[in-house]
From TrEMBL:
Gene Ontology biological process terms from the UniProt entry: regulation of nitrogen utilization
Name of the protein in its database record: Bifunctional uridylyltransferase/uridylyl-removing enzyme
Gene Ontology MF annotations: [protein-PII] uridylyltransferase activity; phosphoric diester hydrolase activity
Cofactors named for this entry: Mg(2+)
NCBIfam families found in the cross-reference section: PRK05092.1, UTase_glnD
Region (Uridylyltransferase): 1-378
Family recorded in the similarity comment: Belongs to the GlnD family.
Family annotation (InterPro entries): ACT-like_dom_sf (IPR045865), ACT_dom (IPR002912), HD/PDEase_dom (IPR003607), HD_domain (IPR006674), NT_sf (IPR043519), PII_UdlTrfase/GS_AdlTrfase (IPR013546), Polymerase_NTP_transf_dom (IPR002934), UTase/UR (IPR010043)
Positions of the ACT domain: 736-818, 847-927
Activation/inhibition comment: Uridylyltransferase (UTase) activity is inhibited by glutamine, while glutamine activates uridylyl-removing (UR) activity.
Keywords on record: Hydrolase, Magnesium, Multifunctional enzyme, Nucleotidyltransferase, Repeat, Transferase
Amino acid sequence: MSKIPLKLDELIDSAALRVELSALTGANGDGSSVAVRSKALQLLKERIASGRKVAEAMLMDDGGGIACAERLSHVMDEVIRCLYDFAVTHVYRAKNPSTAERMAIVAVGGYGRGTLAPGSDIDLLFLLPYKQTPWGEQIVEYMLYMLWDMGLKVGHATRNLEECLRLSREDITIRTAVLEARYLWGEQRLYDELILRFDREVVKDTGSEFVQAKLAERDVRHTKAGETRYLVEPNVKDGKGGLRDLQTLFWIAKYFYRVRTGRELIEKGVFTQTEYNQFLKADDFLWAVRCHMHFLTGKAEERLHFDIQRDIAERLGYTSQPGLSGVERFMKHYFLVAKDVGDLTRIFCAALEEEQAKHVPGFNRLIAGFSRRRRKLAGTSDFIVDNHRINIANDQVFEHDPVNMIRLFWFADKHGLEYHPDALKLLTRSLSLVDRNLRRNPEANRLFMDVLTSDRDPELNLRRMNEAGMLGRLIPDFGKIVAMMQFSMYHHYTVDEHLLQCIKVLSEIEHGDGEKIHPLSHSLMPGLKKQREVLYVTVLLHDIAKGRPEDHSEAGAKIARRICPHMGLSPADTETVAWLIENHLVMSMTAQTRDLNDRKTIGDFADIVQSVERLKLLLVLTVCDIRGVGPGVWNGWKGQLLRTLYYETELLLTGGFSDMTRAERAMAARARLSESLAAWPEKARKDYVKLHYDNYLLTVDLADQVRHADFIRNVDETGKRLATMVRTHEFEAVTEITVLAQDHPRLLSVIAGACAASGANIVDAQIFTTADGRALDTILISREFDRDEDERRRAERVGKLIEDVLSGKSWLPEIIAKRSKPKRGQKIFRIQSRAEVRNSLSNRFSVVEVEGLDRPGFLSEITGALSDLSLDIASAHITTFGEKVIDTFYVTDLTGQKIDNPTRMENIKARLVAKLDGAVEAEKAAAE
């Protein structure tokens, strides 16, 4: 299969190995002693190790994935042959062997194909003519224990001919293993008889059954490994578009078409020469990646985790280019190959189905309920309905009229049809017809807009269009982000997959499926019907400029202004799309990193948005963007932040904000709190209302103020100096922990450290001081349990740890070191530490924004550093994007004023960056 010279003689010298093994047995040739076995074992291990070392060096030199797999297989072949000869000649020699004392050693499964990765299992069949004999048992046992002691994972079976055939009929897995059988050593006539009888007695007339079983097996495997082939940590072996998919194609081909090599599929008309070359290139690339992974990790690692992606990219020679790092270029190539595997699967299935329909009577196995029913499709003579799937009427439909390449998807959407493999195969082979004329064709663009904005299932048809390569050809800028991966723990999918996921979310919101997740965006959609096209186009294009040197939001807006008119959008709608793309991150970042109780935050955001209509569109786009990132990224807290920002901004844009001064609003809030505590004794009520400063009264809801009042009163009555209170928020997916303690500069740092030690992720914090020198801090942590009772118990444990740390019962550094562990892969990311001090974001506070690599204790360290800098923290807002964290603190100096001295501002920035960089270096040193 490989065109690269294998240089097998350089890997292992089997003749020399036999001589060395024989020499171990001495003059009498007896190799049965423990001492000889030990020396033989060591010799064989050395040969495997040296052979693998040479194979790795060759892989680094020539890059041949299949060549490497064949070389490793050859090393194992020779070791097994030498081991067998040593066993039958020197350990258990049969003086007068009977006809039963014969066996063939057969490689099966993956090893049977003559390809191995460094960590692959060795699958062996010890094939016997009749029943097992004592001699046969001894040989098999000796070989297996030797192989296991070499550190190999060996899958094995000892069967006679009849057992092999019987079990192959009963078990598809065994049948597949025998299908891949390859003669290794021993009695070749036994192997030849097995292959002959297997073909005649098992394979013949059972092609449909085998195809159905293997495709079902593939679907189950995809479900386990992840349905999409665009997960950013793909499984190279079992994932969608991985090696096992190619192997499944070849199994089916060998079985159904009765071929022994892939090249014979060209003669059968299944693949063109170009497609078969594509098959080989995909196979070679995936094998290279898999072999590098095994060599690098020293184990059978099949998932391409973040922490090895960069190293694999370097091994394969990928370098950085403007806009894309070397690892991102490598992963884009990987996903393009995975897409090629999907294309080959579709082409193969089309040919297979046609072959079955021709030759298999009553064909109904491959597709449930299949019947060869064809009918005309209303409104066209170029397409037909073939068993509920849209198909081409003839092979010239696209050449005759290239607009048909889009009509295919339009008709499928209109009639709710799936796609016949023949249609997609011809489409893939006709992509060269997509040119500038088609892209500018008004009819083609109208049809595409219908598909994009369909009220049925736009994501499904856009996905089929993308998988066939059509979407990237129709919109060349989209083609540039197909299979593009962002090297980040935050992004779960490639860029194109993310955009399709966002379209899916938008469609769900429009259909009402998103009502429980984010009621506001759902309620706004009916009023945005006139803006549907704007929304769908924006969602499809908002990340279209990823991977470029310039800011992708600004570059994306330029692309939108260029292509939207061709898509049929008016100048006003085009400008709206461009504005939304340019600002698609603004609402998310404002909601998650700014204090939404600060009027300056709302005012600045309103100045950007300028109209309620834009606000509505931006909210829906933001919800789609966050939810489309991947599972677990969206949560109720982010939804709550977006709702708060929306409602506050809507008030300002519609003139609903009060014109009262801050002092007047504080006086009114104090009066409302006093009224709410009417049941209290008058003196206690007056004393309590004086306890809080204006910032607390203007920031905290009245209901929470009353709850805090009861909490503080109860604590005072018990004489405690320290207490915590817990409240769960199910819909927002956060849990609130309120801490009452004596105020001191490092209080938030200690609380944050206790939360880190408990594994609790802080998302927001409000810090208030009272007139009697105490602190009332409200901490919001991410919810962990579904049931309120479970979550409450967990939060109470966190609260108890906070109390223990603050009271001196527990020592924080020790707890953090013991209990907190960084997430897998986090250590390999490189985030440039950054700190900014800005006075333009709030009228009352300086805003300190810190960005760095997330790790346990990050928030505790930063808040401690801010305290050391004599800064008083009023609120903290914590946003995590995978491995990157952005923490924002609203601070004053100890006199309650902004930090406006330029020298001090620079000092704060330098001290914070030094703190971040020092902690990262210390963590690296500890890991090493």
